[in-house]
Design goal:
By secondary structure, the chain is an alpha/beta fold. It has two domains: 326 residues, ANL, N-terminal domain (Rossmann fold), CATH 3.40.50.12780; 97 residues, ANL, C-terminal domain (GMP Synthetase, Chain A, domain 3, 2-Layer Sandwich), CATH 3.30.300.30. The chain contains ten helices and 22 strands. Helix 1 crosses helix 2, helix 4 packs across helix 5 and helix 7 packs parallel to helix 8. The longest helix has 19 residues. Bound molecules: zinc ion. The site of zinc ion has 7 residues, from loops.
Length: 430
């Protein structure tokens, strides 16, 4: 199905050999050219010649966000600085920013991957792609923009926010594809719905990236825009940026570009591989990244692998949507709760809207309490609140094994933002 930007292998059986070759190259390259990696590998007692099979990946030491901070300003640097043609930076929540650098080949590889995303989403060169994400140091703008140019579609770099301008371009240029964060997508969908513009648009697809999405948000966006196809693009600055995979049109997970990187799913505590279908931390090893290669980089993002062949016929493997971060894992009455699990549960309850907030509190009795605020769907009235809150509490109990109180709010009562929307409030630590 992927003709212009196909996988670098023809059958699933050929993938291990391709990955081993990339792994051997990466370890040798990092060992030879990066003092950081050389030290790290020597400490672990591993030399490039020790990597003889994919199983030898387990011998390699991990890399973390802490290593990136310590290597500021150009962490993991494995080429002479004159080879660098670009840097990107992610806003770290604590301490110094992370800066990642790219050679010309790194950029070319990234755009090849991104163009594959557009092909997999079924775009053609007739499409008009409105890119409503931040440009600049952030990877999103450059990735979506240059990837679409490489693919050959018309691009409209409208940037984030500015709903007035977005609506004007959607109408006047008859945009067919919108790229945005999930939060921005919801804002835009509600604006278009509110202005009654839906019937005058030519919008076919929404591609969302740079933020964890929930099924409820996707459902709300589809509903408000009358768009059938909403795709999810995962992305991590350390791993090029967004565009390293795309959700399948069959809604059976996210295909990831295993010909460019190895994805391990490990238990965040033991760092051993999790069992089939179990949730764990995404750990990345790149196969051809020159400037700042990743060797077993711990992303803290959580997901599970999706086993078996995909009904779409694509041979690239799949993982589930990102279910949260191991840092965000909440331990509540001895149970591990990932923010994405709450999304998953709510998406299965009829009548629950797209927005919610979860509060964890420690009361005077010394016990912890979980309280959920959930918006009801736009088409429901107050009379639905009681059965809805009961249904949500029961589903939470059944899936997460914890009790919680549920308050139903009118549609639109909870805050929306253009960037990441905060939904979990753990007030127990202070
Ligand atoms: Zn598929």
């Amino acid at each position: 199905m992927l003709k212009r930007f196909p996988p670098k292998y023809a059958t699933p059986g050929e993938l291990p050999a391709l990955q081993l070759e990339g792994l051997q190259w990466t370890v040798a390259h990092a060992f030879r050219n990066s003092p950081f990696y050389r030290r790290r590998l020597e400490t672990a007692g591993v030399s490039p010649g020790d990597i003889r099979s994919l199983g030898d990946l387990a011998k390699l030491p991990f890399t973390t966000a802490e290593d990136l901070r310590e290597g500021y300003p150009l962490p993991l640097l494995s080429v002479p600085p004159r080879e660098i043609v670009r840097i990107h930076s992610s806003s770290g929540t604590t301490g110094k920013r992370k800066i990642l650098c790219y050679t010309r080949k790194d950029i070319d590889d990234w755009l090849q991957m991104f163009a594959r995303c557009y092909e997999m989403a079924g775009l053609s060169r007739e499409d008009r792609v409105q890119i409503c994400v931040g440009y600049g140091l952030w990877t999103a703008g450059a990735g979506f923009q240059l990837g679409a140019e490489k693919f050959g579609a018309m691009t409209i770099p409208s940037g984030p926010g500015n709903l007035d301008l977005q609506c004007t371009f959607l109408l006047d240029l008859q945009t067919t594809v919108v790229c945005c964060t999930a939060s921005m997508g919801l804002l835009l969908a509600e604006e278009i719905h509110g202005r009654g513009l839906r019937g005058r648009l030519n919008l076919k697809k929404v591609i969302m990236g740079a933020e964890r999405t929930s099924e409820a948000t996707v459902a709300a966006i589809k509903d408000l825009l009358g768009v059938r196809e909403v795709y999810d693009i995962p992305g991590l600055t350390e791993l090029y940026g967004p565009g390293t995979g795309l959700s399948c049109a069959h809604e059976s997970g996210i295909h990831y570009w295993a010909d460019y990187y190895i994805l391990e799913i490990l238990d965040p505590d033991t760092l051993d591989p999790v069992g089939p279908g179990e949730i764990g931390e995404m750990v990345y090893t790149t196969l051809g990244k020159e400037a700042a290669p990743l060797i077993r980089y711990r992303s803290r993002d959580l997901t599970r692998l999706v086993e078996g062949a995909c009904p779409c016929g694509c041979i690239l493997p799949r993982h589930d949507r990102i279910l949260g971060r191991s840092d965000d894992m909440i331990v509540f009455r001895g149970v591990n709760i990932y923010p994405g699990q709450v999304d998953e549960v709510l998406s299965r309850v009829d009548g629950a809207g797209s927005e919610h907030q979860v509060f964890f509190e420690r009361r005077e009795d010394g016990k912890d309490y979980m309280a959920l605020k959930v918006e009801r769907s736009g088409h429901l009235g107050e009379s639905a609140d009681m059965p809805l809150s009961r249904a949500i509490a029961a589903e939470i109990k059944r899936n997460l094994m914890v009790s919680c109180s549920v308050e139903i709010l009118p549609h639109g009562a909870l805050p929306r933002s253009e960037r990441k929307t905060r939904r979990i409030f753990d007030n127990r630590r202070y």
